[in-house]
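USER: Note each token:
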Amino acid sequence: MNKARRTVISLAVLAAAALAALPASAQRYPEKPLRYVVPYASGGGTDILARSLAPKVGEALGQALIVENRAGAGGNIGADAVAKAAPDGYTILMGANTIPINASLGKLPFDLVKDFSPVAMLASAPMVLVVHPSVKANTVKELIAEARANPGKLNYSNAGNGTPQHLSAALFSQMTGIDITHIVYKGAGPAVTDLVGGQTQVAFMTMAAVKAHIAAGKLKALAVAPARRSQAMPELPTVAEAGVPGFEVDLWYGVYAPANTPRDVVTRLNNEFNRAMTAPDIKERLATLGFEAWTGTPDLLATQTRNDLARYADIVKKGNIKAEQ
């Protein structure tokens, strides 16, 4: 047997040995399409992100990701269905930080920490603190001073009780001691409409919802809510940088699987979702819709989930905030 043939055989033996050393679930997975549950109606941010990633992740896995919208109870119905699914990697949840918010607003039919295996943090949709041009303030510190000088006279455009936009504004008031009245709307759309019209004067809204109005001079942007500056508007300081140290609120999206899903399956899914989220074509398309890639290991999502559970519980308690009835 010549040397080249011996080398080929040796490599084949090593490859077979490596394959045999893998867990059985890694060797077989996936053998059928995955059920990709979006716990909200079609057309929203969570649904758009899921449908943008599904084809590329499915191609990499060799099996389709079938997006299933299971809306209701603020995302709890779909999340509960995934929590109770078999932990085999064939049912996954497109989650968002509205779920830890829900936990702070009332009892859930599942435990977000015990009943899920975090898979991958995917993206954030940075919120920005904006004011109507009638507000004299051009900085966060000036807004705080104006609100203190006129307690109760400024109004927040509140996108709905218990929404990330609402809790961002509540935290801002709690940390600064200012009195700004919440005007509750059924969603961000009408809240932004009245903000632009001057019926309300202050709001925390997603970049996607207000960027065009900022560019047109119909709203003034003062700062962004996350702990890091936005890729879309890097000139804006964070609220923490601008005068409220420690302020940090993220509107984020991540993938979960049922608890006890095999670790090698979680790792495989994490790798493929990370690759898809950072692929140039996906990243560019999602950026136009207000998403920013925020990827990492499953531990990143686990940590963010635990942090948000504690953070929002504190905001809700201090603000005596109730869920929508």
